Amino acid sequence: KKKITSAKLYMKKAGAPSGTGYAKLYAHTGTYGSNGKPTGDPLATSEGFDVSDLTAEYQLITFNFTGEEQYEMQTDTYYCIVFETPASGSIDDDNHPIVGYDSSSPTHDGNYCAYSFNQWGYSSTNDCIFYVYADVVAPPAGGMGAKPPIMELLLAGVLD
Description:
This protein is mainly beta. It is about 0% helix and about 50% strand.
């Protein structure tokens, strides 16, 4: 088992968006690698990120999950990591955050999806560029409070 601690998304901006965006961890529904998508309420929500801090060039943006938002993920279970655009601020067709994806050599076996015009769109030929990090949840060694190692975990997920 692992507790999510952070996610990194490859992002840039168009125009001059403003507001606070979040990375959210969701349960997965649908066929993995084909039409997988988030379902239900978020299992975890990152600390907010001011999208006006994005640049016009792609860069990895870190979203931290702290405290009770460090959801304990189960082994062999698919999840979706989603970027949620700001609910308020300056977001429109000319001013918005962009999550980068790879269409030239996608290697992730999950699928990309995006929510637009009140429906999910899917692509198994594009991969979002993302990383998810988690702490391994392990019982204390010999009854002592051993600190578990940190490991990098690329989740089988999709992005919005």
